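Ops channel
N.P.: pipeline sanity check, posting one input/output pair.
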């Protein structure tokens, strides 16, 4: 097994950083989409390009922007550590960096990138269902609550990385973004479990990208009352079934 005490604080710092990254940039994406709809910019954009190109461009632009900002903040933190290394107690240095390996870092980056993209597509889709910017908060509340569940599950994993709920959460695409890296940091995780988890997350991200494009197209045609995400899904898939049987 791994030295859990040496990775506990680092795991918590990384977990909190990813939490802030998703919540902040998810809000940016949904607000940006809603603003375009509120000021009727969306109507102009839709006439000159496809909803698919618009939503993918918006999601990946914000994703890259968030990751760049995250990297800069992380770089400043590392630089500050290097400059002031002699002032830190040896116990803290060991607790932060003993046991941190390249494979742990790669697992963290991979799950963060895929899970981050998954959530941004959800936020973008929800943002397109409102007609006023002030409705964005209530529209994205369900997905924010879902991500909070992932955060609390990961916090539970810090103390019980081998618990059943943690193992299950590390395979659910919406919670694996935080739970699997924490579990990997603190205990031994078979390679096949990592592979299953990331493949499930990637498939879900692709599916949500497809759904978000459909929701965005639906939202661009609706300027009345706010549509719930569940209602939008029913409309999308009922239309898909009608088209399939024609």
């Amino acid at each position: 097994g791994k030295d859990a005490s040496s990775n506990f604080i680092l795991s918590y710092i990384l977990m909190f950083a990813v939490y802030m990254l998703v919540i902040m940039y998810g809000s940016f994406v949904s607000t940006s989409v809603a603003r375009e709809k509120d000021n009727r910019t969306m109507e102009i954009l839709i006439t000159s390009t496809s909803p698919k190109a618009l939503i993918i461009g918006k999601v990946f632009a914000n994703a890259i922007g968030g990751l760049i900002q995250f990297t800069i903040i992380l770089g400043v933190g590392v630089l500050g550590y290097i400059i002031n290394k002699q002032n830190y107690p040896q116990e803290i240095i060991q607790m932060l960096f003993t046991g941190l390996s390249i494979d742990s870092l790669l697992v963290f980056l991979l799950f963060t990138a895929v899970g981050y993209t998954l959530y941004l597509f959800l936020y973008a889709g929800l943002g397109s269902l409102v007609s006023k910017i002030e409705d964005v908060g209530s529209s994205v509340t369900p997905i924010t609550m879902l991500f909070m569940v992932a955060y609390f599950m990961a916090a539970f994993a810090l103390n019980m990385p081998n618990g059943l709920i943690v193992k299950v959460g590390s395979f659910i695409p919406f919670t694996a973004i935080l739970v699997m890296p924490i579990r990997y940091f603190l205990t031994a995780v078979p390679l096949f479990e990592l592979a299953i988890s990331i493949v499930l997350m990637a498939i879900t991200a692709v599916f949500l990208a497809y759904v978000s494009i459909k929701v965005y197209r639906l939202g661009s045609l609706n300027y009345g009352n706010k549509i719930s995400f569940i209602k939008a899904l029913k409309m999308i898939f009922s239309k898909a079934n009608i088209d399939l049987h024609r």
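N.P.: looks fine end to end. The two ends are 57 Å apart (CA to CA).
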